[in-house]
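Priority: medium. Attachment 1 of 2:
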């Protein structure tokens, strides 16, 4: 029975035990994909998998730290044994522990953490899955940048913004390299998204002022980002590659 625009596709969403990644995984599954949810927290992954399966859709969990190439490779082999090769890779895992502030106050460890968790994780994940896609002459890769890397802002955490800006360039160069092999590569640049984490971290008193900065007068949700990811993942965007799409309610127009 045909269900959706991702019927018969295998999709891996890294960092999908919560937040934006979980939103993407659930929407892709609703659209007919067999979805692999990934993260380091096995219990959280099991909960997302169960939610997808209870809706009658297909999912499997793969615990792996995507800053470690050997764990990514092990995950890839497990997915290929269970669901088959990955058609759609969403390199979503990332984030920032760094608070905005002057460069000279940023610790070396904080710098390395952000670079590792964002651009290195994205690089290693793609490095593992790209050769199979090129060999099969088909594939779809979606990366996650951030509004923090779209325009300079003194309030952006520098290590995170720099790593996400690097992801944008990697996305575009890769789109140029992989296009002739039938692989499309695009990126998403969300602004503040009301994930579980942001719901906890952003004080309620601050939310109206944040909302005011958006021509579309609300903050984004994981579903908003998931719908943009679905566009890139489906054939609706068949002739689009190397694009960074701002998902930001109009808060920044690049
Ligand atoms: N939320 C926003 O406002 C916003 C805005 C712009 C861009 N983004 C980007 O969107 C992506 C998702 O953000 P989010 O806000 O949804 O994050 P989140 O709620 O903090 O969730 C992060 C997810 O990534 C996973 N993860 C982190 N490091 C990992 C690693 N080394 N290996 C495997 N999984 C890892 C976590 O899983 P475990 O805990 O299970 O390991 C979790 O599922 C990130 O790249 C972030 O930078 C977010």
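Attachment 2 of 2:
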């Amino acid at each position: 029975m045909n269900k959706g625009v991702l019927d018969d596709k295998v999709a891996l969403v890294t960092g999908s035990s919560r937040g934006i990644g979980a939103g993407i995984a659930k929407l892709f599954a609703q659209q007919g994909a067999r979805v692999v949810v990934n993260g380091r927290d096995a219990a959280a992954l099991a909960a997302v998998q169960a939610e997808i399966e209870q809706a009658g859709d297909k999912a499997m969990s793969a615990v792996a730290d995507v800053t470690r190439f050997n764990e990514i490779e092990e995950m890839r082999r497990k997915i290929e044994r269970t669901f088959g090769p990955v058609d759609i890779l969403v390199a979503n895992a990332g984030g920032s522990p760094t608070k905005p502030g002057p460069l000279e106050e940023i610790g070396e460890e904080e710098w390395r953490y952000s670079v590792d968790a964002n651009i290195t994780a994205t690089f290693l994940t793609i490095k593992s899955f790209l050769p199979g896609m090129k060999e099969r002459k088909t594939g779809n890769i979606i990366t996650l940048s951030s509004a923090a890397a779209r325009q300079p802002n003194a309030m952006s955490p520098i290590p995170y913004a720099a790593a996400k800006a690097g992801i944008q360039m990697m996305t575009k160069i890769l789109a140029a390299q992989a296009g002739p092999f039938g692989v499309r590569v695009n990126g998403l640049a969300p602004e503040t998204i009301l994930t579980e984490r942001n719901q906890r971290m952003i004080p309620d008193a601050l939310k109206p002022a944040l909302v005011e900065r958006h021509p579309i007068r609300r903050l984004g949700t994981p579903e908003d980002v998931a719908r943009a990811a679905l566009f890139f993942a489906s054939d609706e965007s068949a002739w689009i590659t190397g694009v960074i799409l701002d998902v930001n309610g109009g808060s920044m127009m690049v």
